[in-house]
Design a protein that fits this description.
The protein has about 500 residues and is α+β, with helices and mostly antiparallel strands. The protein has 17 helices and 20 strands.
Length: about 500
Amino acid sequence: MSEAFADVDEWQRLDPRMLLVYPVKELIRFLPVLLGLFIAGTAAGGPGEWWQFVGVVLPVSLGVLRYLTTSFRIAGGRVELRRGLINRHQLATPLDRVRTVDLTASPIHRLLGLTTIRVGTGTASTDDEDQLDLDGVPLERARRLRTDLLRVSPGGPAGRDGRTAGPGADVGSDRVVVRLDLAWLRLAPLTSSGLAIAAAVLGVSSQVVNAFGGFAFVHPEQVLDDATAWSWWLAVPVAVVALLVVVSLLSVGGYLVTNWGFTLTHHAPAHAGAGGAWHLSRGLLTTHETTLDERRVRGVSLSEPLGLRLGGGGRAAAIVTGLDRDESGSSLLVPPAPHPVITRVAAEVLGTSAPVTADLVGHGPRARTRRYTRALGPTIALVAMAAVLVGTGVLPGWPLATGVPLLLAAACLGRDRAASLGHALVGRHLVARSGSLGRRRDVLEVDAIIGWNLRDTWTQRRAGLTTLVATTAGGRQSVTVLDVPEDEAVAVATAALPGLMAPFLAERA
């Protein structure tokens, strides 16, 4: 057992510096209550000051108790964590269940030289209390623990026989695969993050303005009077341009804060029997370091939302077996970046570029018709409803003027969905692509498939189509081949893994 494990065989508390972190966290959680006590104390005079003091001491005491009641150890082939005083939680997971190890350090953690270790085990629980987090470990020690946690997992530098690699057993080498290029910032305004940040900023700002009755230098009545003097032909374009500028700046800022220092490296083992790892680090204020056990990485997913696709970009994520859907952030390989970058990284992860660049098999005219129908149907219904309301005098006539642009947009959406639909079996990889606003190309090793699902709705059955789902041990990390002819679905599944389809073929015969 390595040095990092040797000093945690017994139950240990977190670093004492967490006594400075936990009380601050509790104070932030109690901030609304403290503000209420402050306002009440100001209005009530003397007695309120005593309650304000209690309001500060209580969360600080809870933070201290949180530290005193939290302990962990790594022993007996398990990672164990216990915490809580009244509601006692004790978590344990076998080391061979470790899929990923994330190191996250908030600004206060970085100031104190600490980090949080999150052990990804594929748990289906969404409760934070059920997450195996070691919050408050010195950075260097956390990195040693991360290395050892992945060494004892079956996909780490331990051999396929599952034996633990000792300290220094796998020195290996690290190779930088890709780093952040500031030229990628041109893609930031094409993501939805700017709108989300703008909405959050506007929401907080409005609450602050309402709480304090507006700023002294802002007079809402004057702003409204000035706005009414503007022509609509001038006010609307100015407002749209201003919104685009603000959203773009927020998108660029958010991209830099999240992805500053982004580096993806690959750890190559020193000997053939060991396993490698993919390591990602990024973050300006809060830093994130994620390590993926290479033998758990069984494919890639290339995401191309419409905005990024128009700008020639996309994202890349790893398909990690055993990783739950709520741990998808741990599987990121490349943030929004130019398409050649994400395809190059995907090819390196897969060991071949063929599944990434191969032409796909179309799903035929019936599948294309279904894509058009699903895109145009709701729009036609909406326009027809508007026409009825206009005809009965409930609505003025101008809403109908938007009908033609909406129908054209829906037709373009259906056309793009139909063009995106496709699949292929390239070597030992299943490839599936679908979507328009959020087009995605999934590439999965067939050896990672543990079962096939064929699902079809009533309308699919009438069209002779089905949805083929290749299931893995990875939560939502299944690969779906949408609206494929049934005979083609059976042929693909049989060619990929003949044994799994044998019972189904026997029933059909």
